[in-house]
C-alpha cells in the first residue's frame, strides 16, 4: 500500500531526493519549502500525488496549518521527515546571540513544531514513522561548528525521548545521521563555503585554515542511494532508532565513543569522591 509522506526542506539536497524517490514509486507527498515555486517541477512531473506547501518551519502556526492541510488532503499521514535545517559556522566566541537563536529556531524548534503537529494524527491512526535528519555532527563535535552541533545534539536527545514516549501508540522514530553527500554539483558540500558564516575574528584564522584543509573532503555519498535507503527504513517493521547514512565518519565516531568511555573509566576515582564514596575513591 502506498504511503503518505510529509517532508520539510524539499526544495533541494537530500530532502528533494527523498521526495522524488517516494513519488517515483507511487507514494504521495506533502512537500514543503520556504518557496512553493521551488516545488513546481515536482507538481509538473507527479501531479496530484504532490501537495506543495510554502513553509518556514520557524513559524509554529504555519507548521500546524500545513500538517493539518496535508492530513485533510490525503486522509492520513504515514511518514514524517524532519529534514529542514542549515549549518551556522563560526567559533563560539564569534557567534552572535541572534545567529545562535536562529540556528536553534530552525534546526530544533522547527522539528519540534512538526512533531507536535503530526502526533495527534499518528496517534489516532495507531501508526506512523517520524524520521529525523540529524547528522554525524549530532554525535561528534568539530571546531567552528558549535551552533550546528548544539542543534543536532539537542535533536538526538529529543528524538530518543520521543521514541520512548510514543512507542505504545504504534509510532516509530528513527534518527538518520548522514555524513557528506554530493548534493551540490556532484560534490560534498563544504560547510566553510556553503554554511552561514559568523563574522570572523582574526584570532581564529589559523584554526579556520586548518579546518578548511579537511572540510568537505570526506567521501561524498550518492543522494540517490541515500533515498533508496530511506525507503527501506520507511518500509521496515522494526526500524532502528539511529542509523548512519554513509561510512566516512564511522571511524571518527567509534573513536569518539571509545575516548568517552575511557575518560569516564580513568576518572572513576573522582566520580566516587564527588558522590561521597570514599572507599571507592581511595582504590
Compact summary:
This protein has 283 residues and is an alpha/beta fold. Helices cover 50% and strands 14% of the residues.
Detailed description of the structure:
The chain is globular. It has two domains: 4-248, NAD(P)-binding Rossmann-like Domain (Rossmann fold), CATH 3.40.50.720; 249-283. Strand 1 (4-7), helix 1 and strand 2 (28-33) form a beta-alpha-beta unit. By secondary structure, it is of the alpha/beta class. It has helices at 13-24, 40-46, 60-74, 97-125, 146-166, 191-194, 205-214, 223-235, 250-266, 268-275, 278-282, and strands at 4-7, 28-33, 50-54, 79-82, 88-89, 128-133, 171-178, 196-197, 242-245. The mean pLDDT is 92. 50% of the residues lie in helices and 14% in strands. Helix 1 (13-24) crosses helix 8 (223-235) and helix 3 packs parallel to helix 4 (97-125). The strands form two sheets. A seven-stranded parallel beta sheet has the order 3-2-1-4-6-7-9, with helices on both faces.
Strand composition percent: 5-15%
Largest sheet: 7 strands, parallel
- Provide a count of the helices: 11
Q: SSE order in H/E notation?
A: EHEHEHEEHEHEHEHHEHHH
Secondary structure elements and pairings:
Blueprint: E1 4-7, H1 13-24, E2 28-33, H2 40-46, E3 50-54, H3 60-74, E4 79-82, E5 88-89, H4 97-125, E6 128-133, H5 146-166, E7 171-178, H6 191-194, E8 196-197, H7 205-214, H8 223-235, E9 242-245, H9 250-266, H10 268-275, H11 278-282
Parallel strand pairs: 1-2, 1-4, 2-3, 4-6, 5-8, 6-7, 7-9
Helix pairs in contact: 1-8, 3-4, 4-5
